[in-house]
Design a protein that fits this description.
By secondary structure, the chain is of the alpha+beta class. It has one domain. Helix content is 25%, strand content 42%. Strands 1-3-5-4-2 form a five-stranded mixed β-sheet, with helices on one face. A hairpin with a 6-residue loop joins β4 and β5. It is elongated.
Length: 134
């Protein structure tokens, strides 16, 4: 009987360990006030750009992504997440204006008199969602 109870406690712990080791991407969208509010578009049609296009366009809002670095998600998953989020607010393209790995958290470890501060790195990415003018 005791073995079955111990197993019930161990299995959720193992599952949590595997889930915490997965690469993840979190997204936040901000629609600009006063910008055109457009119906969603297809994520497959959204372009990911590294510089602002010369073609006339409206800025609809921005997408901010937070991604893990250990393990890091593949770049194609990050780009797909950008497309999906931009499409939600009617974007035809998203222009990446910020893409950097930076400290996102810190923790203290060690004995009381000899502590170390360790940082946790994360990837921050910001893109401006645009729609081309006809």
């Amino acid at each position: 009987m005791q073995f079955g109870h111990d197993l019930q406690l161990i299995i959720p712990g193992i599952a949590l360990l595997f889930l915490s080791a997965c690469a993840n991407i979190e997204a936040h969208i901000t629609e600009y006030v006063g910008a055109p509010h457009i119906s969603p578009t297809s994520p497959a049609s959204v372009e990911v750009l590294r510089s602002e296009p010369t073609r006339p366009h409206d800025r609809l809002g921005e997408v901010v992504l937070d991604a893990s670095t250990e393990p890091s998600p593949p770049v194609n998953e990050i780009e797909q997440k950008l497309r999906e989020e931009a499409a939600k607010i009617g974007g035809e393209a998203v222009v990446v204006v910020y893409d950097q790995i930076q400290p996102v958290a810190a923790y203290v470890s060690g004995p009381l008199w000899d502590r170390d501060i360790q940082t946790i790195q994360g990837r921050k990415l910001k893109g401006i969602v645009i729609r081309y003018k006809n």
